[in-house]
UniProtKB/TrEMBL annotation:
GO molecular function: adenosylhomocysteine nucleosidase activity; methylthioadenosine nucleosidase activity
Keyword match ATP-binding: no
Protein's name in the database: Futalosine hydrolase
Annotated metabolic or biological route of this protein: Quinol/quinone metabolism; menaquinone biosynthesis
Organism of derivation: Alkalicoccobacillus porphyridii
Record SUPFAM superfamilies: Purine and uridine phosphorylases
Keywords annotated in UniProt: Glycosidase, Hydrolase, Menaquinone biosynthesis
Taxonomy, superkingdom: Bacteria
Amino acid sequence: MEDPTLKTEEPVVLIMTSVKAEKEAIERGLKGSHLFKVVTTGVGPAKAAATTAVELTKHTYKLVINMGIGGGFVGKAGVSSTVVADLIIAADLGSESEEGFLPIEELGMGQSVIATDTVSALEIVEALNKLQVEVCYAPILTLATVTGTTSTTQALQERYPEAAAEAMEGHGVATAAELADVPVMEIRTISNQIGPRDREAWRIKEALLALEGVGHALTEVWS
Ligand SMILES: O=C(O)c1cccc(C(=O)CC[C@H]2O[C@@H](n3cnc4c(=O)[nH]cnc43)[C@H](O)[C@@H]2O)c1
């Protein structure tokens, strides 16, 4: 991202998050910085894409970040840790076949992988490292359905061995940002491990606290 610290009172970074609790956690971390605007999209890639596209028609931003809580793959991203995406991957965009899942690229009909803004992503990873936050830089999957079985977990791990996390909005936000020619990032703090559905095991409070910490780290990078 270009240097956003040019003297302006206008927000230059748009943060898209799915629900109010996430927005409030991020805003606590941002402590009123005028450089950032946080908007809720609702849950899922379609709402995320539509809301981001509308917001990008209202104002010019230098960077869009999809932030929120997410599920972490066991052994890659534990509860309360943070994942910064290098790639945002729509993991269910394609077709089933008897030979296995075919991503949309193999059908010649689109793009399931969107690259994030490397410079900005690595700056935030470095800031989180300095704050001694456990952080990993890896692909984040986007799915319209939360993974809740062992078989889907294994299938995703086989298809995307590098992926560290999944959530439901990244590819929607990234598609809208890409169409508007604005760099994009995704950052998730982990509330639960991906596997057989166990909503009781979700550590939402802890993940929201970690999200607040990421908000603070953003102001350390861009202030
Ligand atoms: O109940 C609450 O207090 C509460 C507070 C904040 C957020 C929530 C959510 O349910 C957020 C839904 C949001 O979380 C992402 N997410 C979290 N874990 C996963 C997962 O394992 N797989 C996919 N998505 C996950 C997702 O992006 C949803 O938008 C509740």
